[in-house]
Design a protein that fits this description.
Elements: E1 13-18, H1 23-34, E2 38-44, H2 58-68, E3 76-79, H3 100-121, E4 131-136, H4 152-175, E5 179-185, H5 199-202, H6 206-218, E6 226-228
Parallel strand pairs: 1-2, 1-3, 3-4, 4-5, 5-6
Helix pairs in contact: 1-6, 2-3, 3-4
Bound molecules: NADP nicotinamide-adenine-dinucleotide phosphate (NAP).
Length: 236
């Protein structure tokens, strides 16, 4: 497995990973700290200290962004937080399973929290050089690609996230011409999130997924795209 060095980003680029406690988030932090071109990689999550990000506490997003302004601008910001199953719920199989509490928890983690990241962290993105703000999405959030059905809340929350990414990309096109706002599908990865769905058997290690995703990000050209880990564009 090759080490990633992000040559398309400016030398001594600064990175920030939200959801750095997750399987994929932690692997991003490791890979970026191993990249000699990366000058700083800040890892944030619900229990990081002194700065934390908890989507259930929107103030934590604004406060953490404000506290990090002096360490910016950042050339790479990755959100690797997300939720598929939670306390007392699993993805819905049928309409009869739909439950408002589950829907709100899923949308809070996958849509509203990330939207607040777009609000408070895009000002920290380098506007003059190449910079990337990456939201981990999911192929099952593709409306065009939905063949199997089910997983209502997760699918809808990621489809809504994709729309937020696209819309933010349009807004930032003029004010931050070097910035790319991207939705990125990691592929199936072995993690706590995928574990109940045979993730350990059918998924690959997070480190390998991250190597592939960083390579895809290196060659990304279009802001507002929905990309897969292999660099291909996914249907909305
Ligand atoms: N694994 C896959 O096969 C797969 C496939 C497609 C897409 N994805 C996407 O990839 C991303 C990372 O998934 P993963 O597999 O690495 O999952 P994971 O190991 O379960 O990590 C999930 C991360 O999200 C954080 N999180 C959850 N709810 C949060 C909230 N309300 N506020 C703040 N942080 C919250 C967790 O923080 P704590 O540590 O504090 O719980 C953790 O850092 C997710 O967006 C997921 O939808 C994964």
């Amino acid at each position: 497995m090759g080490m990633n060095t992000m040559k398309a980003l400016p030398d001594a680029y600064r990175a920030l990973v939200i959801g750095g406690s997750g399987a994929i988030g932690a692997a991003f932090v490791q890979a970026l700290r191993d990249d000699p071109r990366c000058a700083l990689c800040v890892a944030l999550h619900r229990r990081s200290s002194p700065l934390a990000i908890d989507f259930a506490r929107p103030d934590s997003i604004a406060e953490t962004a404000a506290a990090l302004t002096d360490q910016g601008p950042f050339q790479l910001i990755i959100n690797a937080a997300g939720l598929l199953h939670g306390e007392g719920f699993m993805p819905e199989k049928r309409l009869a399973d739909l439950d408002p509490a589950q829907m709100l928890a899923t949308f809070s983690a996958n849509t509203v929290g990330p939207a607040m990241l777009l609000r408070h962290f895009t000002p920290l993105l380098d506007g003059r050089q190449r910079s990337l703000m990456v939201m981990l999405s999911a192929k099952v959030g593709s409306i065009g690609d939905n063949r199997l059905g089910g997983w209502y809340s997760y699918r809808a929350s990621k489809a809504a996230l994709n729309m937020l990414v696209k819309t933010a990309a349009i807004e930032l096109r003029r004010s931050k011409p070097g910035a790319l706002i991207l939705a990125l599908h990691p592929g199936t990865v072995s993690s706590a999130l995928s574990a109940p769905f045979r993730g350990a058997e059918i998924g690959r290690p997070a480190a390998l997924a991250v190597t592939q995703m960083l390579a895809a990000l290196e060659s990304a050209e279009d802001s507002g795209a929905f990309l897969s880990y292999d660099g291909s564009t996914l249907p909305w």
